[in-house]
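Fold these two proteins, one after the other.
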Amino acid sequence: MARSMKISRIETFLAPPRWMFVRVETDAGVVGWGEPVVEGRAEPVRAAVAVLAEYLLGQDPARIEDHWQVMTKGGFYRGGPVLSSAVAGLDQALWDIKGKHCGMPVHQLLGGPVRERVRAYAWVGGDDPGAIRDAVTAQAEAGFTAVKMNGCGRMSPVATRAEVRACLLRAGTVREVLGDERDFALDFHGRVSPSNARRLLPLLAEYAPMFVEEPVLPEHTEALPGLVGAANIPLALGERLYTRREFLAPLQAGVAIVQPDVSHAGGISELRRIAALAETYGALLAPHCPLGPVALAACLQVAFTTPNFLIQEQSLGIHYNRDADLLDYAVDPEPFRFERGALLRTDRPGLGVEVDEHAVRAADAAGGHAWRNPVWRYDDGAFAEW
């Protein structure tokens, strides 16, 4: 019997604009890459990866499910975004190794493709209402058939009429530019209180958004049944949920679209289980992914093999990407070439992306990044949701 590979080295790299890469090397020379990060909290995730590496070094990388079980359940205290994100990046890298070792794309290892194209949407901001029309027009001209933007800026706990009108104006402007043949989604970003959401959702229905994302903060799950009943708009959430168990209550409440992040919610292994859970409730998968090329490549592998997939988020040109963009750490941009707003299936082995290792190492050596999300406040000085 041939000797199995062993994991021989695990390294992490901070890279602008706000990403982290993990490189998992085997004694057979096969290398896998992942993206473990919590945006704004990359350093604790890096430390968590180092702790998990103590277990993984010397192990057979092919035993992905067993490693996932140990990494998520092997400690008495479990869960949370930091640990889940560390596991997520390592899980991506293990799938990348397995695919490369077998000479197959990960989607073949997951059961084979069910589609040839993955529809994606482009980000158009929304915090600055005056720039919406031009931004949407530019993305439509680039071939995208769907866009997403913030539905509001900072919003009072009980919205003023002006704040309500500003949200509706955003939606109306986008619908006017796109017409009826293209789609747009609104992200409430947790900025909207449950009472404001109950007020806004019925008013937005006439603009027929594809979905409204994170209509309330994840800690307000109890508000979801009422919002689903009042909305007449598909509701989506999940970027701040990390396990399939956390998705159960929203799905039972009638949420139409789940948005787990492959770099937060336990990696490819858990993402596909969340998708399967959603399918039993008639819900769709639209993975959250405003991150880098490895995270997007991992999402695509799941999307190609998931029957209830809807649409993919991606970060090309997003406003966060000031010091680097989606393709800057990829040797070959071809796997991320958009054709009529969609990404085409490829049969490249593993995750299908070749990371520019030199660029990643150089970015980390230059200081990486210390990105932090903004802190917003109301006029009286109290904390406001960003």
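Now the second one:
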Amino acid sequence: MDVKMKSRGIGLSFFVFNFFVFSSILPLSFSAANQPRSFKKPDHQFGSSAVFPVQGNVYPLGHYTVSLNMGYPPKLFDLDIDSGSDLTWVQCDAPCKGCTKPNDQLYKPKNNLVRCVDRLCAEVQLTTDQHCATPDDQCDYEVEYADNGSSLGVLVQDYVPLQFTNGSVVRPRIAFGCGYDQKFSGSTSPPSTAGVLGLGSGSASILSQLHSLGLIRNVVGHCLSGRGGGFLFFGDDLIPSSGIVWTPMLPDSSEKHYSAGPAELFFNGKTTAVKGLELIFDSGSSYTYFNSQAYQAIVDLVSNALKGKQLKRATEDPSLPVCWKGAKSFKSLSDVTNYFKPLALSFTKMKNVKMQIPPEAYLIVTKYGNVCLGILDGTEVGLENLNIIGDISLQDKMVIYDNEKQQIGWVSTNCDRLPNADRDFEDDFPHTYPDSFGILSDQCSATYDK
């Protein structure tokens, strides 16, 4: 199948933080010879949960990824997990700009392009003036992210095989993007991943599509380990029965961000002048961003608390804007956390609801042996008054986005191991342990329904 390339000129940087989203999906046509039939729905309305091992870290990699089987026969693609955007896309086996993967790691469409007239196509456009020259035109998509990054490509629909924690196997056909034009600007290097796994709350996300097919609850969660790795899950089977702190999602009619607030900033257990913060939870952002006023207040609070201690500003460290050095190089965060005080975000509409942000959730130790503040000025990079809670502050917490109850929850936990990890999966599928959380292997023994 020939993919017709659409041209556009946009200067980009990429994969720092992403939160543009899309909405609405209908069942799509799909025609290809020798393809497996679609999955058989389970006897009950919803399945269990699909769980995926996560790789990566905040520093030095700057992202967390999962490997997802896509297509038939299934092929693994490593995708940046992004709760701030909806559309999932992979690098396309077409004349490609900005692609970093060899040809055998690209996705090749097989008579499965989504048509321009499909309703879904209108929902993944940047503007509302979409025009189809003919009904059979391919559906081109273009995604722009908050850091001015973007992806241009064509929309396809293909099988995404999954195994649930109850042992059942499904192979739904899911719509996603086949991206052939990823560009980068400035000093930003191309990402090592094959694309983005959009986890946002809009209907174009894989989560929403699985829910609309009756396979899972409309719930997604992640647990990112501060030591690297972790796990991601679709559905509500792994949610602990107690201990979770919940706060309502803020309604947003235009962009389906996972937002909460207003919140007040606490420093070392005491209130501050920073109040009324609306917060976006974004696993596609390595660091946490506050508006200029809140950011400067945090820098002042942290710096003033360091007076009289054996730390000096390390202006020569290019890793992040604000860094400190000690009498000797630091090896890990355990060397420095005793110098710093904890932060917290108190959600003022919910009594006693706080998100604790200890020093290890806002600091990194760099390759130069210094410690740096992993909270950045969002206004300075074009976020205006938006505030983003990124990976650094979400580490070592199970974070749950419950779209059915419109609430966000979190609980401190060990993200190196699944809860209820004593359950084994059947046949040749892996056990639910940190290195293999039940995702289908590249060459699984299961057969497709005929």
